[in-house]
Amino acid sequence: MANNDKWSPHLRQEDTSRTLRIVLIGKTGTGKSAVGNTLLGRNVFESKPSPTSITTNVQIAEEERFGKTLVVVDTPGFLDTNMDKGKLAEQLLLCTGLACPGVHAFLLVFSLRQRYIEEDQKAIEWMKKVFCENIMKHTIAVFTDKDVIDRDGSSLNRYISKMSAELRNTIKSCKGGRVCISNIGDKREEAAELVINMVRKVVRVNGGENQYFRTELFDEMTRKIDIRIDQILAGNDTILEKISKLEEEMTLLTGEDPRLQSKRRELEQRIEGLRKKLKNECSARKEATSETTCDVFTMFYTAIT
């Protein structure tokens, strides 16, 4: 992997006190998407038991919860050892773009129903190289399927003690701590509040709610995305002008003449079509992120391989 200051981590200060940006990372089948749904309080990300990844592309959703705007980024199986490097680079860039200007906390998701092998640890080490070692200061280890240890009368510590020394060290290096939760039934709200409180602690320990983890890549993506968002939203002005003119034209079409009624219906359809073209900031960000990813893909792929 190339050693380039462009990917080195540092903190940026900005007024984000009402926003928490959270990125979910883990291998296929750990319940990343279910964790995201639990945090958001609604089923946004597709989640069901499957040997192959249900989430094939980075997704983003936000919700007002616990006095904050939660922005949750769900990722495909970044830690799957069989993911094509080109696809992985593309999805990492999308993740970076959607999490701009930076991430408050990463949730490294494990499942108590899965076995973890040496290849899993190698994948985690690779992730740390891509995002930089400093990512662990902003990471919480989240274990799903709490019913497994509840049923056996066991504990999370006992489960972790049976993992390899390398994986135990990785979990220990998650400075945000570790937690075991359930994504089903009436325990979801309790789990969400528990994890969000841990995220708040991560933010506080790392300098307060106006600071977050990002790299030079985040800065570059943010700059490009913001420019493109402005361009996309500027198109709304032109559309609104057209709508206004059509609405003025409609006010002149009064009376019961069938031809006038037909013209009114035609104008209404045109106005409806134009309204569908209006972009809100969320859709503009997704469009801008996708386009920006294509622009910087080659540079990023070269840096991580």
TrEMBL record:
Residues 17-222 form the AIG1-type G domain. Pfam families: AIG1. The keyword GTP-binding applies. Residues 236-291 form a coiled coil. Keywords: Coiled coil, GTP-binding, Nucleotide-binding. GO terms for molecular function: GTP binding. The keyword GTP-binding applies. InterPro entries: G_AIG1 (IPR006703), GIMA/IAN/Toc (IPR045058), P-loop_NTPase (IPR027417). Belongs to the TRAFAC class TrmE-Era-EngA-EngB-Septin-like GTPase superfamily. AIG1/Toc34/Toc159-like paraseptin GTPase family. IAN subfamily. PANTHER family: GTP-BINDING PROTEIN A, GTPASE, IMAP FAMILY MEMBER-RELATED. This is GTPase IMAP family member 7. It comes from Mizuhopecten yessoensis.
